[in-house]
Amino acid sequence: TDDDTFSNVFCEKSEKLINVHLFALAAKYYSLSNLGVCTPLEDLLEALRGDNQGTTGIKTDKFMNNKKSHEVQVMSELVDKIANYCGIKQVIDLGSGKGYLSSFLSMQYNLKVYGIDSSSTNTNGARERNRKLKKHWRAYQNQGRANLKSQRLEKANHRPVESEIKCKTISEKPVNNDSSLQSQDQVTIQEGVLFPSCGFTEIATSETSRQTGVDLVTRTQSDGSKLSEEVLPILNVLPADAVEVFSSTQCKSGELCKEEKAQRRMASLKAKASKSSESNLHFPLTSCITAETELSDIITDLEDCMMVGLHTCGDLAANTLRIFTAKPEIKAVCSVGCCYHLLSEQFENQEDCPEEVWGFPMCQYLKDKGWCCGRNARMSACLALERVAVGQVLPTESLFYRAVLQVIIEEMYGVTKSDRHVGKTFSKSSSFIDYVRKSLKKLELDDSKLPDSCIMDYYEKYKHRMNELEAFNMLKVVLAPCIEVLILLDRLCYLKEQDNIAWSGLVKLFDPVKSPRCYAVIALKKDSCF
């Protein structure tokens, strides 16, 4: 588009908005979905030689809400594929909270996960939740196998019976349309290759051997073996070496030779050892993570690993990327940030602190420009345009209450700034009067000198402006994706500036209606190829 296309959105003299329609078009034009800088999730999974052979049909909504279930299911599959590609079994989950992602990665994918959170309450909750989850995990697996069996039967009824396995290939095409961000490493997909510095010829090995094992079991069953029909899904759940297949020709039924007895005894010992180790695959830890954190001080057996974060709050998302680039043990990162309003900004207060580590900006380009968003813009970036687009109503009344409260405390108490917060008082209030009094108590202001009639006078004075407030917030919602783009591209540019990164990209992981903060920053080190 021409540079002048959106020049008439604001008045040059007053700088006021004069063309709402053009404003909305400009916001859409500069949104992440329109810029062509994202790598499609399907292409990334294909490049990682991803398939669904390891799925067990377990539905995570059995033990978490729909939003969290969607996030954990999608992200854990990708994390597992990246871990397999890098040949690593250790995962560090920063800002792990109640351990939803950590526990699922450990139990579903047999990864060793350290979940680190700054809140001891969250860590203790994660530990207790993990204990309960392990107790019921076998039931979830059994249900999952039944689901998987049903799906396979349904597929079999809708397609011709074929014994050959067809391999999928991706034709050569650029992942990103016209992004200058990708120019330094020309991210393309050709014969399954996504990362320019890493070959993918060996990555299919583990998946191929798994498929070969499955084929072997299937053939053995068809030859009249005594293996249960449930062996196939069980093989998909257990580690590759957890099951030994004994030949039916070794001994007659009911007669165990010494060799088979020894084999079974060894298999039993292995199973017990595996069960014992699997019970400790998830380790919730309490620690406050900063850019200078030494992970080896927290994790004594730190090895080559991957770092993940599902909705890491504020500066933690930025620090996750800094730790990833600085620590040689961390071979890959997959980070989904949130809470942009809590980011620290280097140029927000015009402070000159070169030694300080800030949440924004990260990349040198924006640092050189002295770029600043400001708290209001970052607050706007947290809004969910896609949810509003499908009919979800903005919380206009609660925003109106908060705006009128601001006027009251400025005019009646002379307070223009406070370190205290009102929080979620609106949801706990029965009326505007109740809201004001509860808020004043939280702010430690004396509400006794403020009669109910005075409070209601303020309400009546401004209630006719509620429509203005709603319109203003709709404009903020429309602008939200543009501000999020700036923050996410800053993080991506930071990774592009590093010499030790083989590939980095932005990937849309989640359905934005279910999970508005849906973009992941993903990167792999140059020495991460397995």
TrEMBL record:
Annotated SUPFAM superfamilies: S-adenosyl-L-methionine-dependent methyltransferases (SSF53335)
Gene3D superfamilies linked to this entry: Vaccinia Virus protein VP39
Cleavable signal peptide: none
Name of the protein in question: MET25 protein
All residue ranges annotated as the Methyltransferase domain in the record: 67-346
Domain of life assignment: Eukaryota
Pfam (any one): Methyltransf_32
